Amino acid sequence: MSVTRRHALVRGGALGVGIAFSGALSELFAGTAAAQQLGHSGYGPLRPDPNGLLDLPEGFRYRVLSREGDPLRSGEGPVPSNHDGMAALAGRRGKARVVHLVRNHENRANGRIGVPTVEGLTYDPAGKGGCTALTLDSRGAVLSERVGIAGTAVNCAGGPTPWHTWLTCEETEDKAGTSGYTKDHGFIFEVDPADPHRTGAVPLTAMGRFQHEAVAVDPRTGIVYETEDAFVQPFGLFYRFLPRKPLGGTGSLRAGGRLQAMRVPGLPDLSSVQEPGACFDGVEWVDVPDPLAAETPVRLQDFGRKGVTRAQKLEGCYWGDRCVYFVSSFARSAEGSAGDHFGQIWRYDPRDRSLTLVVVFGPDTDVQLPGESPDNICLAPSGGLMVCEDGNGAQHVYGVTRGGEVYTLARNRQNIGTPEEPEWGEFAGVAFSPDGATMYVNCYAPGTTFAVTGPWRR
């Protein structure tokens, strides 16, 4: 196992509470309970929201764009529940510039409010998951809201394409006959938010059938990177898909391609690495024997004597700075992982086939405090990364400056538990408008989509 120290290690304001990161990063991700102690960083302390929805720093405001149970503006039915991954894509309506928000709904077969079935957009009538699409004008007003795809299952995250569509991922491996489903699930689907009927409800089967979480597309090569969210053994894999028609535009991924899993020589489990800045050269990619998992789940298939590299809870995935970043939300040795942590961020550089651990949480982080289990991530307009928290206790959106200062940007105030045992829904789907002026983010439960404006450039 070859490990090189390419980056100097630095520990910033979060020293002592279980977070460390490697320096010299133009996009740096972090989030920890220490962020609440860094009143001088970021945008200042959070102000309690008198409406009890979303706490933000002074100078920031939010608008509720959409909320579960309200009527969809298309009249197709109610806004579905369980708001999850999301993207903000530039578009046009006539000569006017618009923003398309395409939003996942992580509904299972027993979901509260399923995505309404629409002719031509429904994969399996028994599935309650899917996507809805909102179109906003230049001032942020909602022009339309409609179903993007229906009849899918457990649509967790996904990722945008360079041609302005959304790849929505099913986080399940249920087959036809399970939970009442009439078709196999566990696929990626492409959604065109400007014209959903253009993409329809066609599974991209060559991209694999497994517990998908998120994807990121290399805009130079068209290679698609995919995470697998498996929190019990055998743990998930990190994949890449080599499309037969790279960068071919809407519908080109239907032409198929080759699915491969990552192998880091000498590193069977990412959780065994605890030192930020550790870098592994010579990353290999191994063909997946049966991407459709007709008989055996992909992560249980035979990858040869050398095997593949695994990680517990692979979740967020994002492309930036000519590299792909991906998240392992946590690892627990008691559940079979090689080590313990409350979050890692890895960076894969396809130019030299290197993998670097850029952020690690804990395990000395107090899990009862905010700042653990990172999930969705995205680049902030002024640099750094934004992260949605999916852990215990209060839930936050965190950020980090280019200088490495951790800060809180938002806190969910909506209690979905009881006064005696409060519980707050996770954040998901953080994304910025193409001009960087607005941050969009979902609250998972109760399903709410927020638009946040403020002094982002400060």
UniProtKB/TrEMBL annotation:
Question: Known InterPro entries for this protein?
Answer: PhoX (IPR008557), TAT_signal (IPR006311)
Entry's PROSITE patterns?
TAT (PS51318)
- Name the domain of life this protein comes from: Bacteria
Q: Which Pfam family would be a valid example here?
A: PhoX
The protein depicted here goes by the name: Tat pathway signal sequence domain protein
This chain's source organism reads Streptomyces cadmiisoli
